[in-house]
Amino acid sequence: MYNLVMLWMTTVLVGVLGLMVGSAVNALVWRLYVGRSWVRGRSMCPDCEHTLAAKDLVPVVSWVLLGGRCRYCKTRIHWQYPVVELVTAGLFALSAWWLAPASVGAWVLFGLWLVVLTMLVVLAVYDARWMLLPDKVMVPAIGVALVYVVTLAVTHHHLLMMRGPLLAAVGLGGAFYALVAVSRGRAMGGGDIKLGFLMGLLLGVQGLLVALFLAFNAAALVAVVLIILGRKKRRDQMAFGPFLVGGTVVAFLFGRALVAWYLHLNGLG
After folding, report:
1. Predicted local distance difference test score (pLDDT) of residue 2
2. Residues with pLDDT less than 70, the chain
3. Can you give the three-state secondary structure of the chain, one letter per residue?
4. Which pLDDT tens digit goes with each residue over 203-219?
5. Pseudo-torsion of CA 23, 29, 34, 40, nearest 10°?
6. What is the pTM of this model?
7. Which of 13, 35, 113, 174 could serve as a FRET partner for 74 with CA atoms 20 to 30 Å apart?
């Protein structure tokens, strides 16, 4: 009973942290786009550039109370802001509940995962808005993922555990590079190559297959729906990064469970 209560408390606290991180993600995405410093300067309205007060920055609550408009110029605030905050909070809470870190080593790995998860959300939002995966986020994310792989191997006293993630990273990164070269950048971009490398580091070979299956099928389904609704044409480009990020998160958290379920469903488990 005590452990369950502690797990619930941890989940709620990490979820609240995710809500605040989601607010920071929105600010970071905008600052990246306009070329402002990540850490210097107060938050401001993107339209009237009025400095925002603390009461304007309460995640989700401020957006609701203001009716989705800036307090000062009354310009509509994009729905991206509350959605990203809620999604980030949900992903943080879900990670805490599912991974349930208990030991010091597990908490270190969990902390590294949350850092990478935050960067993945930044990449997904940025790519969805402007169809670009910025190196200023991608490169640090790969660095943290490498630290995660090394820490995992050290924690389990088995350095050969690094071999699978490294092979998966090189394999998918190389496959995406070949696809970019063959399509001359029409099918994918350079950011997707780095994202493929990052995915391999986080997931290993088995998890990578799960993530790619989910990403490609989800992207195909969304594309068909958008074409049917007349929102896109067959030749229109669509950001693939958010689907890869979504597949990565699902595979990282539930990949083994999904594989076990699939094998059992087919009588192979």
Report:
1. 58
2. 1-2, 269
3. CHHHHHHHHHHHHHHHHHHHHHHHHHHHHHHHHHCCCCCCCCCECCCCCCECCHHHCCCCHHHHHCCCECCCCCCECCCHHHHHHHHHHHHHHHHHHHHCCCCHHHHHHHHHHHHHHHHHHHHHHHHHHHCCCCHHHHHHHHHHHHHHHHHHHHHCCCHHHHHHHHHHHHHHHHHHHHHHHHHCCCCCCHHHHHHHHHHHHHHHHHHHHHHHHHHHHHHHHHHHHHHHCCCCCCCCCCCCHHHHHHHHHHHHHHHHHHHHHHHHHCCCC
4. 999 999 999 999 999 99
5. 50
6. 0.94
7. 35
The encoded tokens of residue 249 equal: 């998160």
CA–CA distance, 24 with 92 (Å, rounded to integer): 14
The two three-digit tokens of residue 183, written as one number:
């399509």
Backbone φ and ψ for 44, nearest 5 degrees, come out as -145, 160
In order of 30, 187, 200, the CA distances from 168 in angstroms are 32, 21, 4
User: CB within 8 A of 210, min separation 6: which ones?
Assistant: 203, 247, 250, 251, 255, 258, 259
User: What pLDDT does residue 1 have?
Assistant: 62
Q: Are 93 and 11 in contact (CB under 8 A)?
A: yes
Tell me: the pLDDT tens digits for 10-34? 999 999 999 999 999 999 999 999 8
Q: In this structure, are residues 95 and 250 in contact, taking their beta carbons and an 8 Å threshold?
A: no
- Both tokens of 248, joined, read 């990565």
